Amino acid sequence: MVDTRFFHSAGPIRLNEIASLTGATAASADGERIFLGVAPLDRAGAGDISFLDNVKYVEAFAQSKAGACFVRPHYAGRAPATMALLVTDDPYYAYALTAQRFYPQPEFAPGISPQATIAKTATLGKGVRVDKGAVIGENVNIGERCRIGANTVIDDGVEIGDDCRIGALCTLSHAILGQRVLLHRGIHIGQDGFGFAPGKKGAVKVPQLGRVTIGNDVEIGSGTCIDRGAGPDTVIGAGSKIDNLVQIGHNVQLGLGVIIAAQCGIAGSTHIGNGVMLGGQVGISGHLNIGAGAKLAARSGVMTNIPPGAAYGGAPAVPIKDWHRQTVTLAKLAKKEE
User: How many CB atoms lie within 10 A of CB 303?
Assistant: First the structure.
């Protein structure tokens, strides 16, 4: 069950409201039935809404005590008699919308902590909250209804759009953020890119003269580092979602809606197209092009350009079918050696 010390439900909500919100069909159910929250199949009770999106959990679905469940049409026949069905072709997406409805982002009271340090030339919009220990530099421009977490440092000249939330212990420099950007705790944006010119007398640092620009509706996980460009900007496209502990090098350009799982590393000047998805621990060499809609399996090592829409895996990364063939062949060879 959801721990009410940390999460507060906006329920109760009627079933027909959930159906309208998600576009699901409430099959053979009382639309006025009341629900209090959401929960996984194995923990849900009569007042909870759950979902089935993976064939591995069909048995858990059949035995669940959830009061209602999002489910694809072909699994509806496995439901318990007491369960109201919300039939949809995309149960997980519908569940996400429902969870947001029950547990919206907490509101915060605007105000400036007396323990914050704010330069006189900084501009803060209406409804901004700045928590204790935060430092905001000269000529910083922060839009309306933003929250700046405790001990976060925003260096001179940074611009932040409306409705952004910057977590505690972040550092931002040489950066322009759009609207509704969410930065979790401990993120570092705009530091020097890794640029050195080797020479007989040792490596000479190349000044990094670009910025980081982050589009609207981007979310970035804790511990991620995004270097500023060397001349051109490092660009994070609108709607992109970046997990924890990701390294993005200088001059990298992400398209719209890119999804990056934890511990990925993207070397400098690589271009990643719209809608690309990277599994955990993917490593991408510099100066490459990853085509729009491409998918890279977890722990892939990418050393060549990837065509649009392609699925690759392995290290070095190859088309996904070839990678699976390689894996099967290696397993057979290992058995022969036994």
Answer: 12
pTM exceeding the 0.85 threshold for the entire prediction: yes
Whole-angstrom distance, CA of residue 296 vs CA of residue 29: 41
Q: Give pairs for 105-114: CB < 8 Å, separation 24+.
A: 105/165, 106/8, 108/147, 110/145
Pick the closest to residue 148 from 172, 165, 163 (CA basis).
Answer: 165
What torsion do the CA atoms of 94, 97, 101, 102 make, to the nearest 10 degrees?
Answer: 60
For residue 141, give the amino acid letter: N
Active site residue 174: no
DSSP assignment of 302-321: E-S-B-TT-EEETTTTEEHH
Say if residues 288 and 307 touch (Cβ distance below 8 Å): no
**DSSP readout, 149-172?**
-TT-EE-TT-EE-TT-EE-TT-EE
Question: Choosing from 184, 188, 250, 271, which is the catalytic residue?
Answer: 250
Instruction: Check: CB of residue 238 under 8 Å from CB of residue 217.
Output: yes
Q: What does the pLDDT profile of the chain (338 residues) look like in tens digits?
A: 788 899 999 989 999 999 999 999 998 678 899 999 999 999 999 999 999 999 999 999 999 999 999 999 999 999 999 999 999 999 999 999 999 999 998 889 999 999 999 999 999 999 999 999 999 999 999 999 999 999 999 999 999 999 999 999 999 999 999 999 999 999 999 999 999 999 999 999 999 999 999 999 999 999 999 999 999 999 999 999 999 999 999 999 999 999 999 999 999 999 999 999 999 999 999 999 999 999 999 999 999 999 999 999 999 999 999 999 999 998 888 887 66
Question: Token pair for residue 314?
Answer: 């392995």
Instruction: Walk me through the domains of the chain, giving residue ranges and CATH numbers.
Output: 13-102 (3.40.1390.10), 173-338 (2.160.10.10)
